[in-house]
Amino acid sequence: MKIRKQYFAITALLVFTMLCIHAPSSGEGHSDLTKAGIIPQPVSVTSTGEYFTIKPGTDIYVHGDSPEIRQIAQYLADKLNVSTGYGIKVLTTDKTPGSGNIYLTLTDSKSNPKLGEEGYELVITKKLLLLSANNLAGLFWGIQSVRQLLPAKIELTTKQSGPWKIATGTISDYPDYAYRGAMLDVSRHFFSVEDVEKLLDYLSCYKMNVLHLHLSDDQGWRIEIKSWPELALHGGSTQVGGSKGGYYTQEQYSAIVRYAKDHYITIVPEIDMPGHTNAALASYAELNCSGKATDLYTGTDVGFSTLCTSKEITYKFIDDVIGELALLTPGPYIHIGGDESHSTKREDYIPFINKVQDIVLAHGKKVLGWDDIAISSLRPNVVAQHWANVKNANLAVGQGAKILMSPAIKAYLDMQYDKSTKLGLHWAAYIEVDSAYIWDPASLIPRVGKKDVLGIEAALWTETITNMDEMEYMVFPRLLGYAEIGWSPSSGRSWAEYKNRLGKQGERFKAMGINYYESDHVPWVK
Ligand code: NGO
After folding, report:
1. Fewer beta carbons below 10 Å: N end or C end of the chain?
2. What is the pLDDT of residues 111-161, one digit of tens each?
């Protein structure tokens, strides 16, 4: 009897220990791929219940020798080598590599058309981690999934001990919306090239493919324009609160664009007009109807400035600025602002916006503008960015335009989480992490459906945000929700399920050194 009791106790202990090993708390080393908890949630995941392990001797093989595919493979190797310390190499092959390796290959888009431009497939067996896609962007997004399949310590910047296990199975994944972005206002407070690059790193982790830079406003002009040098020199010299501002030289701006491109992100530059233009009006007297330059502005009011819409020189100025910007912009869009032009008469605003659209088109770019521009005659392929006015969104759709969804009540990253948040504003709403996630761009506005929506953009205005730490606090963890809304199918989406996946990301944020808001709505895994 005693022996049986002891036997029972030992068996129970063994089972318990095995359960502990097999059910790690944070997804680390989980053998069930469907429980990996990737954000954004992949379209389909099936598990085969075993592990692929990255170990000394693992290399990354690429099919074909294009520099771009090697660059993507090297990006993965560089990430893995820091924390594994394995010295993983990038090698070229034309046949499936041997056991224990990673293999990146481009496939014929006809063989898997549903993956589209940005989708990817991961087939993970005990022997091989195979990542394939129709295009380079798909491979790059697939790598972001691989990062999240590994333990959080993969993100640390010092050598860690393994094991580096990835559950086996298949992931087939592609985005719901073509445009998945964020906006950074570098005008109210200036952010350096390094800061912007850090933000680009973060966006790419969650498969976001656009960064919109709000380059001019009342408080600062942040891009060098060679034909109008005072814009940056004088108009960029200060910022909110009166401290020193800054601007990007064209070389620096091009470096940002290149860095973004290497992360499969498009930069959308914005020059806001005819309102939000005090920095320009302070730099050049001739842009004012009065012929007198204004003072630089370091407060946070809106709606008091306007370009002089009746002067010829105004359109020469715009043509010069858009011309230089278009040459710096490989992406399709130039954003013309158009919001809150409260000091421009409606009868002046409409022809102004019409003319500016034509200037952008003449420089070979497409027009993006805040939804206010919908009262003008929208040219073909214009995109209206919805932020506050539902009527404008409907007006835009009525003219055949697509909508980019940035509703301030849901997607403004400068909105406070709740009453206790020290940074940010709350004129539109308090946006807790759950509220940021629980909405659908295809049904938020009556009569604006999925076919009308180009995508989603989360906007960070920076009246109160002065540095990277503060930026991270407002961005994380809400950004992941926006990324998921943009990428994953909306069917079956639920906060109750998402919050657990988000909770597991906390240790990744920590490993990446991100200053995030530890919302008590989220079950953080410590
Ligand atoms: C508004 C305004 C911006 C402010 C922001 C603050 C738009 C499109 N124009 O959004 O100038 O910075 O709110 O939340």
Report:
1. N
2. 789 999 999 999 999 999 999 999 999 999 999 999 999 999 999 999 999
Whole-number mean pLDDT of the chain?
94
Distances (CA, A) of 502 to 233, 376, 422: 43, 42, 23
d(CA 90, CA 70): 7
Distance CA 202, CA 126 (A): 30
Say how many Å lie between the CA of residue 449 and the centre of ligand 1: 24
For the question of whether the overall pTM of this predicted structure is more than 0.85, the answer is yes
Read off the pLDDT of each residue in 10-24 and give the average, rounded to a whole number: 44
Q: Which of the following is catalytic: 121, 224, 340, 470? A: 340
Question: Could you tell me if the CB of 183 is within 6 A of ligand 1?
Answer: no
Distance CA 373, CA 375 (A): 5
Which pairs with CB-CB distance under 8 Å and at least 24 residues apart come from 372-375? 372/338, 372/339, 372/340, 372/341, 373/336, 373/338, 374/399, 374/401, 375/346, 375/349, 375/350
498 Cβ closer than 6 Å to some ligand 1 atom: no
- Across the chain, how many H-helices and E-strands are there? 15, 17
152-192 confidence digits (pLDDT tens): 999 999 999 999 999 999 999 999 999 999 999 999 999 99
Q: Tell whether the model's pLDDT for residue 11 goes beyond 90.
A: no
What are the tokens at 240?
A: 């909110």
347 is catalytic: no
- From atom 6 of ligand 1, which residue's Cα is the shortest distance away? 461
Q: SS3 for 440?
A: coil
Contact 106, 69 (CB under 8 A): yes
